[in-house]
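sorry to bug you again but im stuck and you know this stuff better than me. what follows is a protein written twice so to speak, once as letters and once as structure tokens for the fold. mainly i need to know what kind of three dimensional shape the backbone takes. anything you notice is useful, everything is just below:
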Amino acid sequence: MTEPTSLQVSDLEAQLNDFDPAVRRRALSALLALAQEGAVTMPPEAPVANMHCHTFFSFNAYGHSPTSLAWLARRKGFQLIGITDFDVLDGVDEFMAACDEAGVRGTAGVETRVYVPEFATREINSPGEPGVKYHMGIGFTTGAVPAEAAGILADLRGRARRRTEDMVGRINPYLAPVAIDFERDVLPLTPRGNATERHVLAAYMRAAQEQAQDLAGFWAEKLKTPRAEIEPLLPDSPKLQNLVRARLMKKGGVGYVQPGPESFPTVEEFHRMILACGALPAVTWLDGTSAGEQAMEELVDLLVSQGAAAMNIIPDRNWNIPDPATRQLKVKNLYEVVHLAQRWALPLNVGTEMNAYGQKLVDDFDALELAPVRQAFLDGAHFIYGHTVLQRALGLGYQSAWAKAYLPGRPERNAFYQRVGYLARPGKEGLQRIAELGAQLAPEELLRKLEA
């Protein structure tokens, strides 16, 4: 066999992000064949997990497709990885198939914003938007949803499109003579038409580069920022993008519209869709500094009563902070919310998002600040994988009638799926092995078989 060059491997890895799914599949097969032959070195598996990675079906800052993220986990030795996209389940089936091929422990989720009327006067985790909450469903096994959930999922996609399209309509007049066309300039940046605010931002950055005769002068005028502050940002696209997004698309910007009760689905509506798919509604937590998150016990009580069964945290933003006082406060808040989740029997789903430039490929699980919560993070990752693999293999996931009959309490149910997650092997063979056990076993028998 001819030894592959690093350029050939890089080319195959780039093909993992092609918008053509057939190209992605072929590239993964070729990379796995090279790995099998020993031509691509694979590191040993490490006890780390990134359970919250956006894919290019919503927006990934590094362009990763679901297939590419499965390969990333295999190539870097991540123990577990999970995808989460805004408003769609478009990547779930591809991701599950790629994880099976690559021998990776994978999970899948969806994220959106919901309206919480009980917190209508309090900001929760969507800055500047009282009553609005980022919220998640985790543990999906397919993007094919039951009929009773199809309308809700379609509504999420439709609302998202209207928001981004309307934003372009507000920003275009302000940025004239620079302008973009939603169909021509934004939608081609996405594989299946789920354009986000970040796709709109990318389109405007490209349009300004092509259409503005004096780029620094253009942005200085439109962002009402001195030219001397804009010029150093031009070679650093992420910093300039963050400034443009903050000034044009966030609160106070021309593209922004303050949301209200009708802007997003209710918690109950979103939960209906998640539960119909056999997945788990998950509370999402930002950093504990908002009025809503300072009433976290009240918020969790409300959301658990409506079906929430897990909690999502983005750890890096809560400890990796230059200012010592802010870091101390947010680390304290992180520990407190982890303890709160444990009291409420809410397993943790943690990750880095990857939907903004500079976000890590995986959290630093060896960071001193994460030492007290590291095991809780790993236990939560294995819990959601345990649910996912049992649901896929036997239909015996967390929300199944089997689970509710045998494991009626949340703590015992959590402990069972966490144990399954630690025992279940990744990949096709592991899935097949569980499927062969059959759906008639009691939980203790099933665990004994897996331990054998």
